[in-house]
Amino acid sequence: MAQDLQRMRQGKEELQTGKKQQKGKGQREKKRALAGLFLLLAAVLLLFAARSFPNFATWYSLHIYKALVSLAGRFFGIFPISVSEFLLYILAVFFVFCIGRTIREAVHSGKAAAPLVRFFSGLFLAAGILFFIYAAACGVNYYRTSFAEETSLEVEGGTVEELKEACRMLTDQVNETASEVYRDESGQMKLTGDVQERAVAAMEKLGEKYDCLEGEYPRPKGLVFSWILSVQKLTGIYSPFTIEANYNTEMTDYNIPFTVCHELAHLKGFMQEQEANFIGYLAALESDDTEFQYSGALLGWIYCTNALQETDYEAYREIRSELCEEAEVDLEANSQFWQKYESPVAEVANEVNDTYLKANGQQDGVVSYDRMVELILAYNRQQNG
After folding, report:
1. In angstroms, rounded to a whole number, what is the distance separating the alpha carbons of residues 46 and 272?
2. How many CB atoms lie within 10 A of CB 23?
3. Residues 241, 82 contacting (CB under 8 angstroms)
């Protein structure tokens, strides 16, 4: 009898302990959900303030974001590889692990509710953290004062004649520098030396001309597994989660200097793609490095002649015929490289990027990259005026 009472008492205590543990777990999950909700709301309010008050966005970019870049640059600069790249792989593995654990616990206990609540509360918190970091280190900057406004460029009013003149000027610059860069046995341009240090030097030099670009730049980083960008037909990517400028190391070399400078422009708060393109173009073209000059000139030539082809095809054909053979080799190699990655994955990635840009106020979506041409014409007008 005494033993039965003891067993009953023990069973009651275990039941109470189990209830307390369940209650404790429930409280933790509730706290996770509330923390995630708070971060999401904070991010939404931050983006709303930036969209509604451009002066706030500019102030934030020049002070808060600048401090974030300095802190993150010093910390993540310790690592020679892209931290954001490997965090992506780690998070992907961890996500799969969490799904597996949730399924296992649901099957083992016979009750799916508790494991699912725990999984989704954790997922909600992670989403809140990531969205807040994105808003603080990227989203606000889409609404800051533009580079054109900062540098008094009058973008409106470009003419076909100005476009023709820009194409001729860039053709001359490409032809002048094409023979001065190192080329392999196939005739393709190949980079020499440390492109990362030279990209920082190019941006710092441009910063001497434009106050909005002055200051230190974290070291850009090539992805170890660049195929993850290649399959999406991406040349580079800015990671707001680690504030790193990343680039594709697999693509044809003439793309790299321009691309690295483009990504570094994002670290100065210029998120609009046409502006980052234009800054990358200027930094490369005005660099003391011939390889960078060639890269900037050839990328500028591609964008401008594409625009000319649509407006005056005969003028395009005439200018196109004047391009030197060395540059033709690079263009052909570039076409062959990207043709390897023609796939539904690349199409989906392009649609995602287009939607992302439009959601951040760039109404032209991926076409906004091409609007760099308007900035080139405005810059030429300013220089000649």
Report:
1. 18
2. 10
3. no
Contacts of 73 (CB under 8 A, 6+ apart): 216, 217, 218, 219, 243, 267
Displacement of CA 326 from its chain's centroid (Å): 30
Structure tokens at 86: 């490997």
Q: What is the pLDDT of residue 240?
A: 94
Locate 173 and state its tokens: 């610059």
| Candidate from 214-218, 326-330, 381-385 with smallest mean pLDDT | 381-385
pTM: 0.88
Residues with Cβ within 8 Å of 266's Cβ and at least 6 positions away in sequence, in order, are: 141, 238, 245, 276
Structure tokens belonging to residue 169: 């000027």
Q: Angle between the 325-339 and 160-178 helix axes, to the nearest 10 degrees?
A: 100
At 344, is the pLDDT very low, low, confident or very high (cuts 50, 70, 90)? confident
SS3 246: strand
For residue 237, give the H/E element and its range: strand 236-239
Percent of the chain with pLDDT over 70: 89
Q: Give one DSSP letter per residue of 140-198, joined into a string.
A: GGGGSPPHHHHTT---S---HHHHHHHHHHHHHHHHHHHTTS-B-TTS-B---S-HHHH
Angle between helices 325-339 and 290-311 (to 10 degrees): 80
Strand 244-247 and strand 221-222: the pairing is parallel
* Distance between CA atoms of residues 106 and 99, nearest Å: 11
